[in-house]
Amino acid sequence: MQDAVTAARPAPLAQSNGARLLTYGDLPREFNIATHFLDRNDGDRTALITNAGPVTYAELQALANRAGNALRALGVRQGDRVLLALGDGPEFVATWYGTQKIGAVTAEAYTYLQPKDYRFYADYAEPAVVVADALTLDRLRAAEIPNLLVVGVPPDRLRAGEHHFETLVAAQPAELTAAATTPDDVAMWRFTTGSTGTPKACVLAARSAALSFEWFAKGILDLGPDDVVLPVPKLFFGYANNMTALFPPGVGAAGIVFPERSTPERIFELIAEHRPTILVNVPTMMSAMIAHPDAAKQDFSSLRICISAGEALPVELHRRWLSTFGTEVMDGIGSSEMFHGYVCNRLGQGRMGSLGQVVPGYDVRVVDEAGESLPAGEVGLLEITGETAALEYWRSPEKSARTFVAEHTVRSGDLFARDAEGFFHYKGRVDDLLRVGGRWVAPAEIENCLLGHPAVVECAVVGYEVDGLALPRAFVVARGEVTGQELRDFVRARLAPHKYPRDVRFVDTLPETASGKVNRRALQDE
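RESULT FIELD:
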């Protein structure tokens, strides 16, 4: 694979507000993500809000420069990969920007993986350095991964081949000349976060960050310097990383970072303490927050937006959120393959039950298997064209050819229908469809129906087999007294007869992937 590609320069486009849309042709030929986003800020402004207090832009810039110098001292060179396997905090953000500034490539891994999983990431990504912390160190050691830069662990606990972050970084100069990179240079790896299969790295050029910021953060969210962003997902997840550590510096705003796992209680505490204006959320956490016994006591008046992504937001869950908290939800869809969101509802103009309209800068179509556009109302695959698209899946040429079907174009495995007004409606994933009685059934349709029952808090529908025949099974988190037969009858009264779940299992919680999606693979294994 080449480290750079030449992209066509399109004609100027217009944003929904009529302003001219910045495109690839507007980007300078010398472009570095760290200087473009981080270094241009007023040093006195707050960049990060942490458990230990605020971090100014001047402090974050200095720490990022020292971290970049430290990585160079460890032998990291332009184009090398640096794998971040540590919790959220200033060190994560600074090391991410320090890696970018020296022209290396950032990649992030979840902090609760098993040693075998970290071994996979190390063998696959071949990072020059892995950045760890007290939470991941022992599992990285068990995976026998060398050249660790370790945050927050005393020096006397480290072994040969492990480097003390605080000592090494403090010894470096606070000035760092940015590498002479271009918008087309590979800058980031983002791992796919689906509920099945082995993660694949989407190889992304620097232009993806610049254009997504302009098109989504500024064009759709109207992100401004007074915004404070609180993420529910952790920074290893590109959705949260973009919204907390990348987009806010583009306008001098602030992001809240905290190392603990996200729980309803912790999110409530952070909202009460820091009064964020934007909450970056996922449907599973939204459901848990609504179901919390203290939900009605929360003051969400500081929030101007709750963003929902990661998976489609069911209509009934959306209604419950509005009735409980009153904060408007902007539901949308993005992917690692396209770097961030490409379809989203607009503030004050959303349509409940849809994922919104096309983000300016993208061309989004619903197509058949041959790639032919389908008319409004028909269900097909979603195909997205835009210059933020990844270049390929690393070392996966066949999968790359099936997904990246043309220049800057991704054909996803998501099934959608577009209505006459241009709103896109999610119909499930091709891999999730069940063939019941010779007819296709989308689990999402059954799930949305079940969520209309007042006793159902969360649910997920997967397939199982009886005598070689596929049937729907529902896993339900419920409140109050309800039986499986009641729920089966509820669905049969509202959907076609063959769609009701033949088996209903009540559970305390639904398993989740690292990115907060329902882990359907785990449910299918039960």
